[in-house]
Amino acid sequence: MRDLEVPMVVSDFDMVFRLVLGIGLGSVIGLERQYRARMAGLRTNALVAAGSTLFVLLSSNGFHGGSADPTRVAAQIVSGIGFLGAGVIMRDGLNIRGLNTAATLWCSAAIGSLAGAGLWKPAVAGSVVVLVSNIGLRGLGRLVDRNPGSGTETRTDYTFRVVARGKAETHIRALMVQALTGSSFQLLGVASRKSSTPDCVEISASLMTETRDDSQLEAVVARLSMEPEVNSVSWDVQPTQEPGDFTENGAARRRLALRAKGR
Q: Would 150 be classed as within a structural domain?
């Protein structure tokens, strides 16, 4: 008589521990992405790892019997995460952005799957490998790059200013925030103050990006300058490192302003 294979029963405490481990490791990976202002940051990586953990727990503990195959759900995680990764890959002219972030999401799913399977040591080791790859290999990649100027990620801080009529402050502020958040910049803050121009206010926004890209700000300038209530639009940039582009005080600055005619 053939013996029936009895599935191993995982306690509720063990399931909760695996889930906490999966979301914790995903959060650690997401912190690095969040710090670099990537599209998929802390919450996305944590949720991807948590979802993978839950699916693995479901496949290994929710289905039993001769036809049950826990590896099927894990295999679908591998293919399904590709659709989520495709959402963070963008084409910017001739360049493709977001490949590293998409690969990080794929790794977060793998780490969540390991945590769900109870393989906590490989899960922790995998998280360390992902962090080392995203942080430690960044400098090595620049060192071996054939074109040292390509792929350079230097934090750049921008200040974007709009002078508009006071009665249109709310409308112009909303337009400015909408235009800036639609770009690759990280919006750090927005403030308003009374302008030296009579009956006008100055709305300023602080921005940060890992890769300097003035063209996106110029597009926002062109957009806001079309508004009849806007008097002027300007921006200042202070990159941390920009060889050959430093003023006397050591801070590189550039300014672009458009003023409406007849004002």
A: no
